[in-house]
Design a protein that fits this description.
2 domains; binds zinc ion; Immunoglobulin-like; 293 residues; alpha/beta; 3-stranded parallel beta sheet; globular
Length: 293
């Protein structure tokens, strides 16, 4: 997660992520001067590279009342949904900016209602997850990834600036993470992803996957005439939660390859140790599995 729309995000972070086939979530402030001065990078560039935007409020200055909150939080969400093509109703991640006392004058109930109204999902806390602030070395940061792998859970790191290097660089972004820490961190993450230990994704995809998986139900409707029919459902709102889950299905030992269809999706899958691994959408229609050959 990258906070505050810094220059180093499009100058350093995004290009280094792209080189490694990785993405991140960028918590942007479309009302900040440095965002507006370089708006074309946010409007035309980063999301096309697969980067995901999240709501960090318009100006990062807080607000005095509920009307101010609606503008700071709601307008930022509207701008992201205008910049990035997609369905009108879709989830966005929200990250509350760090603010001094008196700059967040709404109740917890009003805040929760505001998030719900704008289809926003609050991200996990900054506590113990801030680069430079809490964690300094690539080893400490990679230990988070290793903990996610060990627990089959989720971990995250919140980064502000990344060190800018070059003849014309006169200043650094806030809490700039040194490149000799940042680049080995990315390499370490890429390595774990290549070994298929780690899924590197954005906050909303992780949230959707976990929400769907935790309430998913799988029923075998029929298994006859060499065809398996399976029903996958979950409790989450199908309008906002349509990310495919990964399924493992055990098949007869004679099967070498299977054809998996769901709706108009169709895929050939190799059988390994009697198992196939494939993606399916909860509530996306009956999954049909047939042998090939
Ligand atoms: Zn911030």
């Amino acid at each position: 997660m990258f906070d505050d729309s810094y220059l180093s995000h499009w100058q350093v972070a995004a290009p280094e992520l792209v080189k490694r086939g990785m993405i991140a979530t960028f918590y942007i402030n479309p009302g900040k001067a440095e965002y507006q001065k370089f708006a074309s990078h946010w409007e035309d560039e980063l999301w096309r590279q697969g980067m995901v935007y999240a709501d960090h409020t318009m100006t990062h200055q807080g607000f005095a009342d509920l009307d101010g909150a609606e503008h700071e939080i709601g307008d930022c969400a509207d701008i992201i949904r205008r910049i990035v093509p997609g369905p009108e109703r879709r989830l966005l991640s929200f990250g509350k900016p760090g603010l001094g006392p008196g700059h967040w004058n709404i109740s917890a109930e009003d805040f929760a209602a505001l998030l719900r109204r704008h289809d926003l999902i609050d991200r996990p806390t900054f506590d113990k997850h801030g680069a430079v602030y809490h964690l300094q070395s690539s080893e400490q940061m990679l230990a988070l990834a290793d903990r996610a792998i060990a627990t089959q859970g989720m971990e995250y790191l919140i980064i502000h600036g990344v060190e800018r290097i070059g003849p014309n660089v006169k200043w650094q972004d806030f809490w700039a993470l040194k490149q000799d820490v940042f680049l080995p961190l990315l390499d370490g993450l890429q390595q774990r992803q290549a070994q298929r230990q780690l899924w590197i994704t954005d906050h909303i995809s992780q949230h959707q996957y976990e929400t769907e998986r935790d309430s998913a139900e799988l029923r075998v409707r029929s298994a006859e005439d060499g065809t398996l029919r399976v029903e996958l459902t979950c409790q989450a709102d199908p309008l906002l939660y349509r990310l495919p889950l990964t399924l493992l299905t055990e098949l007869p030992s004679t099967w070498r390859e299977a054809l998996v269809t769901q709706g108009d999706r169709e895929k050939r899958v190799a059988v390994t140790d009697r198992l196939i691994r494939y993606d399916a959408i909860p509530g996306g229609g009956t999954i049909v599995v047939r042998p090939i050959g």
